[in-house]
């Protein structure tokens, strides 16, 4: 995406935006489930054409809930994704639905519905805060869910922010990853909205 990596100071500022989005997501998940939910962001990093499978949670199959982002740029191309290890996703579904974890041994229709709703809430919260800082009416599209071995489903190179996200339901913490993929234009706009002047300017399309 960019020729120059994002600076540590810029990442610190973006972390504040992410923390606001995490707070909104936790509130919305609490209202949905009736459980006490907290979300923390232990680490955030910039990834450009990286190998996502090496940095994703867990070591086995994963679940990816992806939504397109509409309204950031005219060209489009931005998207958000929530990524969980499959065993983590199943345990989270059991807690959300107040069911025995053993009742959820695989990702079926019920699990897909619950995980899509959770991914939709988390992505919408983060993207909504992004829109506030950009001063735009940013929306998300319909979520899509992929589940399988990480090398099979995490095949797209990541360009953007990879945000390690810890979800705490009651007293149980689950590790996940939130990915916010930008175009050069949208990322530069976000940095300028945060008050930065040392912003990489995207090359004009040739």
Question: Which helices and strands occur, and which strands form pairs?
Answer:
Elements: H1 8-33, E1 37-48, E2 62-70, E3 79-85, H2 86-96, H3 109-134, E4 139-140, E5 144-148, H4 150-153, E6 159-169, E7 172-181, H5 184-193
Antiparallel strand pairs: 1-6, 2-3, 2-4, 2-5, 3-7, 6-7
Helix pairs in contact: 1-3
Task: Explain how this protein is built.
The structure is a single chain. By secondary structure, the chain is α+β, with helices and mostly antiparallel strands. The protein is built from five helices and seven strands, in the order αβββααββαββα. The chain has helices spanning 8-33, 86-96, 109-134, 150-153, 184-193; strands spanning 37-48, 62-70, 79-85, 139-140, 144-148, 159-169, 172-181. Strands 1, 2, 3, 4, 5, 6 and 7 form a seven-stranded antiparallel β-sheet that branches. A hairpin with an 8-residue loop joins strand 2 (62-70) and strand 3. Helix 1 (8-33) packs across helix 3. The two termini are 15 Å apart.
